[in-house]
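Q: For a teaching handout, I want to show students what a protein-ligand complex looks like in token form. Below are the inputs, and the small molecule is beta-D-galactopyranose. Please produce the holo structure.
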Amino acid sequence: MNCGQSFYIFMMLTLFGVLQLHSQEKSIQILNSGWKFTKGNPPNAAQRDFDDAAWETVTVPHDWAIYGPFDKEVDKQVVAITQNGEQVASEKTGRTGALPYIGDAWYRTQFSLPTLDENKKVLILFEGAMSEPEIFINGKKVGEWKYGYSYFYFDITDIVNNSKNLLAVKLTNKGLSSRWYPGAGLYRNVKVIVKNKKSIDQWGTFITTPVIITKTAQVNIKTKVAGENLRLVTDILDHSGIKITSNETTTIFGHQFEQNIAVTSPKLWSPETPYLYTAVSKLFSGAELRDEVTTKFGIREIKYDQQTGFSLNGEVRKFKGVCLHHDLGPLGTAINRAALKRQLTILKDLGCNAIRSSHNMPSLEQLELCDEMGFMFLAESFDEWAKPKVENGYHLYFEEYAEKDVVNLVRATRNHPSIVMWSAGNEVPDQWGSDGVKRAKWLQNIFHREDPTRPVTVGMDQVKAVMESGFGALLDVPGLNYRVHLYEEAFEKFPQGFILGSETASTVSSRGIYKFPVEKASMKTYDDFQSSSYDLEYCSWSNLPDDDFVLQDDKPWVIGEFVWTGFDYLGEPTPYDEAWPSRSSYFGMIDLAGIPKDRYYLYRSRWNTEDETLHILPHWNWEGREGETTPVFAYTNYDSAELFLNGKSLGIQKKNNASPQHRYRLMWMDVKYEPGTLKVVAFDKEGNAVSEKEIKTAGTPHQLVLDPDVTTLKANGEDLAFVTVSVVDKNGIPCPTATNQLNFKVKGAGTFRAACNGDATSLELFHLPTMKLFSGKLVVIVQASTQVGNIELTVTGKGLKTGDLTLESMKP
Ligand code: GAL
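A: Here is the structure, written as tokens, with beta-D-galactopyranose included.
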């Protein structure tokens, strides 16, 4: 992070429940509790004497729309989605999640400040506010922003006082403003920063590592400051916080110090070795400390080369990436570090090495975690430029805000080693026409001006148009969304020498649901509004994972892919955009609850090169299908395997080149269903049996089983445990089709936060302590309070043996 935190800081909770980081020269308050909130637009809500006692009390980060109810009328859109190739308008429900995000709302809170004198200044910083925030302090408007995903701040020195200050924020969410669930509210952190006027600028530190040789790395630090006659001392600390070197300078040009510091025997950052250094920048005036900023950074080299493609620290590699929207499923968009960490933990096991923040600015928490856990990051900015996709989309603000939004994105995040590329846009309709070419150049130049070290891409779907116009040729990295049949041609026509699969697959499936007959199909729909987990269904504009694998494996000039998507998200329920009820996506390898679908194992069998993958599908509970053809697939890193049904061999399958599916999956297409045990035995290259896996037909649901992702939590009022609940028969065999209604109780040092079963058609509310199982599973989210102690979760269901679990909440 490059927003500073003092060496001498101490933390305290004030009367208002506000987290404060204090020191003589700087204080940072995170305003997270004690907020009042209302929907609507009451007159005078910005005024100090306004009575907000009747408003709801909430904590921030907060998403006001996630509590529902789901309603098909919310943001119902009668549109032709032209980027999906539609010509005729039709009614689309659930496109933005069918959750009530539209309308005005107000937030109010109070904060007090340390003693101010004429040498101090005060900033208010928002890390995202959905949307069109208008900020009032003590009844006076201090500023506004438009884009709900942007980080921004205002100087409020002239309006605040030492005693209580009133902060009021008005937000406005227009309908027809998004293509997915945008969330609503102050969904990221709000901070008040008090510092010296003579200090380091907000986001004023820029650290790069231009030269790295085995023995030494050059760490270049540019520091923008306000004031005269200053001296900058920068200490560099290693991973464990030990000072390894230091530099002092008084040479300043144009309010900017520049230091070049040698780090000997540098430890390089990579997904496998996410080694982080810390720079502590201390600004002095004479002997007096004026400011101190702590910045984590990594030493790593990225290169995009016409001959060899992408390399990190000299090693050519491909992006094994996923696109993620910003919502956290049942938690909505309110940012939560534990939820983000769980996502990344699951993605690590997948073997994923990169994330694309589609289609907007990522949270700072997500970037910090990617730095720490080792993920490369493609940080995106916009889904629209000047031409619209939706009536009230970003095009309304593009002219006035695009540059400011890009500048803030880059300045706030450029020290994160995880970020290896910027994206100026996704499938913008400006791909058509000469104005769009100019806009592409203009935006790319802004990124280059702000950060000369990273390339810029745009996710392009109008590949023919951008080949013609020069749009694709001018970008640092040409990103193709889908259009696998045009990769070769684009590689020939574009000058860069490589192609990125900026968005791939868009295969659809519902966890644990299988459809017959098993066949490849585009835009296939069923009466139950689910898609088949045989992973053969895709969209009219997209393709199957295997088609991408062929390009990734056979074309050295393809530098990787970002799969649409890692996790399911709220909204965009393709291929059921016109069906109700359906309110969340089918694209994820992992469902909305965070439970892997079969497709997860298909990618894992390629991406995770450390661990074995041997996964069988479908489940084996097909009462009524006895004697009918029920194909069996295995997703595995092994080349061949033998299948047995109730001890009888159904033959050996070996990966081959008959089709992309035959190349990456083992498929027994003629299996006739009979209940019992299905077993695969996998062989190594020499034909030795090396591993086996079996699944069995389950009896009736008998007992609930609870499996938490963590067993100890931090008693900080925010930490979460995600508990997967499944039901097994009396022999302990998972019941894959169970849909029992369950109830949840949490006692002790925590509370029930939400539940989710991953069913895109469910209208059950996430925050109520009851939900049906979907394909035999769901996830319960338990939140730590600020009390230390045990948290007890009890899950009950009619006729089922109760599931109990004790978690421990410890001092943070
Ligand atoms: C892409 C688009 C994504 C999502 C996806 C669904 O064209 O960039 O935002 O809509 O299609 O397949």
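A: Two things your students might notice: The CA atoms of residues 739 and 773 lie 4 Å apart. The pocket of beta-D-galactopyranose is lined by residues 83, 426-427, 461, 481, 503, 506, 539, 542, 564, 572, 574 (CB under 6 Å).
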